[in-house]
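[[Sequence with tokens]]
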Amino acid sequence: MNSITTQPGTALVTGASSGIGAVYADRLARRGHDLILVARDRSRLEAVAQTLREQTGVRVETVIADLGQRADLAAVETQLRGDERIGILVNNAGVAVTGAMIAADPDRLEAMLQLNSIVPTRLALAAAEGFIAQQSGAIINIASVTALLPERFNGVYSGSKAYLINFSQALQEELRPHGVRVQAVLPGATRTAIWGAAVDHLPKEMLMEVDEMVDAALAGLDQGELISIPSLPDPADWQAYTAARLQMAPRLSLNRAAPRYKQ
């Protein structure tokens, strides 16, 4: 299949030293993409890069950056704007704060919002500048199914992922005329370090391995999906969810309040 991920171009992947980011790096390298891998942990990132160089023969550059730090984030933004080789951005870097919001450290919640929402926004917009000029490219934002179930999860975490879905949908509308693809990926429970040992207590039928998740997400990108939910068997469920939301649109802003508020 001739898709954006089988065409030449360098992919920049954030949070690439382990988990989802490392598997994206592996899969994109095996599709022939050179890589720019971004993460904080130098030793782990260099190990991933060296393995991919040896196994795939692609060019792999590493950028040691803490995207929660303004200067490091700005440096990656600059690279996205100025490096014409880059054709794919995988916005994967993120963090989770679990437990009750009212018991959480507000500073940790703020840092999570910065990394999960602000950082991918700035990187996506930086990448979009170059992609518009090239009239091609793909931006992949890693969200989460928790965005669809705010009653069951930490609302700040799920809210940060819901933001990514909203952002991705709106960004695709702006970028479609320029030949640029946007995809939001909504993994369910996935065996990654972000959740620690908590995943070991989940029923095995709920827990997906990282390789399975990334392979499904890339297949969704190949198939032209804007929203990819790797574990959802029937895409009609998402289509129905979207249709129900859009059906309300004509009644969301009217010049009179609804009658039930006037009783």
Observations:
- The CA atoms of residues 136 and 179 lie 5 Å apart.
- The beta strands are 10-14, 35-39, 60-64, 86-91, 138-142, 181-185, 227-228.
- The chain has seven helices and seven strands.
